[in-house]
Every structure is written in structure tokens, then in C-alpha cells.
What does this fold into?
Amino acid sequence: EGSNLIQTFTVTGVPVLISSTATGTAPKDVAVSGSHAYVANSGSNTLQIFNITGAPSSVSTIATSATSFGPYDVAVSGDFAYLTSFYPRAIPKRYGCCRKLHLSYDWFGK
It folds into this structure.
């Protein structure tokens, strides 16, 4: 199980953890543009925007927005963030009189 954090490290020499800030559930990707970091949270189906101006010691959440099911990757260009979503989900269904369990797969994404 993950810790659901966006973490800041030094990148000169040996990486050293400087700070950790909570994200949504199951963060899958981060993109940085200017003074903002954008995080795709697959478990909570959200995109979060963080202010990283005061980094490394202060990273703060600016906004959280609902997304389609299972956001996975994020890219930023100019004033727009682009997300990909893809998450297979098994849904149990019962068929017939014998109450057998059968898995059918629904694919979500854009």
C-alpha cells in the first residue's frame, strides 16, 4: 500500500528527501510546469494542482478536480493539463439459477 504523497528531493549528489505533502489516493503521475505540479490520482479519480513556488519546504494544494475513471498520466502545455484514463474493472455478475459467479470486464477511459 502506498503513502499517497508528493515528495520533494534534492537532485544534486545523493537524493535527499526534503518534504512530503498529501495527495489523493493512488497518485500515478506528476507533471511540473512553472510554479505548479499536477498530480493524477487514479484511486480518487482526481487531478490535483500544487503550488511549488516555496519548494522545497512548502508545497501546498491549490485545487482538486474530479476526473474520469482512473486517471493515469498527466501532461501540461500552456494553460491546459491533459490526462489519460484507463482502468479495467471486473464486475461480478450472477447468471442462471445456480448463482454462479461470472466476471465480466468493463473498460473505462478516454
